[in-house]
Amino acid sequence: METRQITANIPSAYYDTIVTMFKGLGIDYNVKPKKAVKAPKASQPEPDSKEYILNSICQGMKEVRLWEQGKLKLPTLEEALNEL
Question: The whole model's pTM is what?
Answer without folding.
Answer: 0.41
